[in-house]
Amino acid sequence: MRASHIRFLQRRLAALGHDPGPADGTRGPRSDAAIRTALASLPPLPKGWQVWPPRRRAIACLQALARRDGMDPGPIDGLWGPQTDYAVTALLILHQTGQRPDWRDLRPAPPALWPTEREVTATFGPHGQPGGFTPPMVKVPSPWPFRIAWNLAETRAFLWAHEATAASVTRILHRIHLHYGAERLRDLRLDIFSGDYAPRRMRGSESRWSMHAWGLAYDFDDTENRLHWGADRARLARPDYLPFWEIWESEGWTSLGRARNRDWMHVQAPRLD
């Protein structure tokens, strides 16, 4: 259970007429008392829930709210497992967007889903050509606005994704937003977009095409994560960004920074050869 879950729970408790205090993502005595009061009105609960520790009661409250809104968290037992994680994620997305996500769309893809770079054409078809062929692309809405790296006054509300990766990118963006929140994303410069689909060759190569040419890669904040910088200089190598990379990796995507300690701006679906 993350701070974003607690903030959501605090907002929902306030909307239900309880008094959890400010929605600051930190459980305190007021939040714990509001959770206890709310649970008494959100049956069914197993016997003995009153003596559970406060964190377990908070999880149980999220489970009960998810079940009330049609998400299945499994048993309301105050224990955080994969089913509770998916149900609470779906609940937060429902309240953010007004749309009920498909349960199946929230499940992470197997880490070995994507092919290697050598197998990309066989799997995804031909790459894009400047002024010519474009792969099947989908506009994936972003839960937070991106600023364009080369003009920070310009914003964009989506990422281009190859149609085969669009569902994965959708899940990833929602999970990143749920973890950090829009304000923290901006503070960390994770809202700075430096590139998605671009029909071009790899930098420094005359023959190999970039994964961007298939719409299978993304760059973030290139000004503070230069191509040849290692972890000693790249911003995205700092500890605050570990959850960002772990969310991508949970869907089988590869960070060049974490794999090869260079090009920390870059993440791609295909595995490295």
Folded structure, characterized:
InterPro entries: Zn_M74/Hedgehog-like. Helix 2 (29-40) packs across helix 3, helix 3 (54-68) packs across helix 4 and helix 6 (166-180) packs antiparallel against helix 8 (242-249). The protein has a 6-stranded mixed beta sheet with strand order 2-1-3-4-6-5, with helices on both faces. The model has no long low-confidence stretch (mean pLDDT 89). The radius of gyration is 21 Å and the shape is elongated. Helices cover 35% and strands 14% of the residues. It is of the alpha+beta class and 273 residues long.
Kindly report the average pLDDT value.
89
Q: What is the rounded Rg? A: 21 Å
Assembly status: single chain
Distance between the termini: 36 Å
SS summary, helix count: 9
SSE pattern, N- to C-terminal: HHHHHEEHHEEHEHE
| DSSP strand count | 6
Which spans have pLDDT < 50 for at least 5 consecutive residues? none
Largest β sheet strand count, sense and barrel closure? 6 strands, mixed
Strand content: 5-15%
Global geometry: elongated
**How many separate domains?**
2
| Sheet with most strands: strand arrangement | 2-1-3-4-6-5
InterPro entries: Zn_M74/Hedgehog-like
Structure, briefly:
By secondary structure, the chain is an alpha+beta fold.
Give the topology.
Elements: H1 3-15, H2 29-40, H3 54-68, H4 82-97, H5 120-124, E1 137-148, E2 151-162, H6 166-180, H7 182-187, E3 192-195, E4 217-220, H8 242-249, E5 254-255, H9 256-260, E6 266-268
Parallel strand pairs: 1-3
Antiparallel strand pairs: 1-2, 3-4, 4-6, 5-6
Helix pairs in contact: 2-3, 3-4, 6-8
